[in-house]
Design a protein that fits this description.
This is ExsB family protein. GO terms for molecular function: sulfurtransferase activity. Pfam families: NAD_synthase. The protein has about 280 residues and is α/β, with parallel strands linked by helices. It folds into 2 domains: about 160 residues, Rossmann fold (3-Layer(aba) Sandwich), CATH 3.40.50.620; about 100 residues. The chain has 12 helices and 8 strands. Helix 1 crosses helix 2. The two termini are about 35 Å apart.
């Protein structure tokens, strides 16, 4: 098994061979590390581009801009509206495929128009084990590369290297676009995305760590880290949260006793596949 330093050396060689690159930059741990690595190797021939739309929380957009400044890399905001795509709005199991295909097609077009050879994205070696239709979309775009995945860097290694480099994102919690909170089959709308963003901002006042508000129509299903569940379910706190989320338009508010976990919305897909088997 390759050690981390060998992987990092391979990453540097890969980046140097690319010549110039646009980094799809969300400002999360992976894309921030990739942007920093690319800037170290390519300098001004690397640029971080953030596609932004109603699916990106405003706080994440602002943090991405701050992180890019700290890295030193040029940062560009590229508007994108997934809600114009009927395939995306339909919100079936391939939602992430349609999102990634549209977003990275836009990045590829921007790169070509501005003289950059490649578009890079931040998937890592741990991302191959989950249901990720977005990776399938990226494989269909010839100019898109996943350098961290190609050299085999894991999330833990990326966090440790980020810590060593002094990147503020080294211990940043994993994030996902707001549309990932909407239950499959329920159309994605700007109103629902705004509901989710406001609801999660409310919950941040009461607990720490990972927070997700899953939108099931009139039901808000709250996922927080297991250690935080008791804090939210104290009667007086639960009542306050319910009142505030009711005011946002949720009829029912529930705390998921299983706590936060990645891909929880995919459980329904697993169940459907078992029923078909």
């Amino acid at each position: 098994m390759k050690d981390t330093n060998v992987k990092l050396q391979q990453l540097n060689v890969l980046l140097a061979e690319l010549g110039s690159a646009v980094i799809g930059f969300s400002g999360g741990t992976d894309s921030a590390f990739l942007a920093a690595a690319a800037y170290r190797v390519l300098g001004e021939r690397a640029v971080a581009v953030t596609c932004y739309s109603a699916t990106l929380p405003e706080s994440e957009r602002m943090e991405a801009a701050i992180t890019a400044r700290q890295i030193g890399i040029r940062h560009v905001l590229l508007p994108q509206n997934e809600l114009d795509s009927d395939d995306f709005v339909r919100n079936d199991a391939d939602r992430c495929y349609h999102c990634k295909k549209g977003r990275f097609s836009a990045l590829a077009a921007w790169a070509a128009a501005h003289g950059y050879h490649w578009v890079l994205e931040g998937a890592n070696a741990d991302d191959v084990g989950d249901y990720r239709p977005g990776l399938r979309a990226l494989s269909e775009l010839a100019v898109v590369r996943s350098p961290l995945l190609e050299v085999g860097l894991t999330k833990a290694e990326i966090r440790e290297l980020s810590r060593q480099w002094g990147l503020p994102t080294w211990n940043k919690p994993s994030a996902a676009c707001l549309s990932s909170r909407v239950a499959y089959g329920q159309p994605i709308t700007a109103a629902k995305l705004a509901q989710i963003e406001k609801a999660e901002a409310i919950l941040k006042k009461y607990c720490q760590g990972q927070i997700r508000v899953r939108h099931h129509g009139g039901l808000a299903r709250i996922e927080v880290e297991p250690a935080e569940i008791a804090r939210l379910t104290r009667p007086e706190v639960a009542r306050e949260i319910a009142e505030q989320l009711n005011a946002l338009g949720f009829t029912y508010v529930a705390v998921d006793l299983s706590g936060y976990r990645t891909g929880s919305m995919n459980q329904v897909l697993d169940l459907e596949n078992k029923q078909k088997a």
